[in-house]
């Protein structure tokens, strides 16, 4: 983004929603605009699968790519157990539509979740969500 656009536009960017707040279907990009000159383009544009990732998923993908696919490195960087790193990676693959049908969800067990809360690698809210899924 150019300095001129930053100065003229908002000081922070917001992530565009990916799902319709009414029906839950995926939203389509239909308008693009230039913050500098005001030019607008209207049409139906191809969606960006990676743009729909939340901050945690984007971080997982960034760390995975930076570690060249080494889940042990991902585990160390994120401060989680190997099963949790693998589960997050599998969740990311599923969200992107890249998981094979034979791949079963690999969620951490109760003891792993509680251990990660105790070590500070997992927040109590995240743990509660994971425990509710067991």
From TrEMBL:
InterPro entries: DUF2089, DUF2089_Zn_ribbon. Residues 20-49, 53-98 form the DUF2089 domain. It holds the Pfam family DUF2089. This is DUF2089 domain-containing protein.
């Amino acid at each position: 983004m150019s300095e001129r656009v930053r100065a003229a536009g908002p000081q922070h960017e917001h992530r565009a929603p990916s799902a319709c707040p009414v029906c839950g279907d995926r939203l389509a990009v239909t308008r693009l605009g230039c913050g500098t000159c005001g030019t607008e383009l209207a049409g139906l544009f191809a969606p960006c699968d990676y743009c729909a990732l939340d901050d945690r998923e984007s971080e997982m993908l960034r760390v995975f790519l930076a570690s060249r696919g080494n889940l042990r490195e991902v585990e160390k960087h994120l401060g989680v157990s190997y099963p949790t790193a693998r589960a997050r990676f599998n969740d990311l693959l599923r969200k992107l539509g890249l998981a094979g049908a034979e791949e079963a969800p690999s969620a951490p067990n109760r003891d792993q979740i509680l251990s990660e809360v105790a070590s500070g690698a997992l927040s109590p809210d995240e743990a509660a969500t994971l425990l509710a899924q067991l």
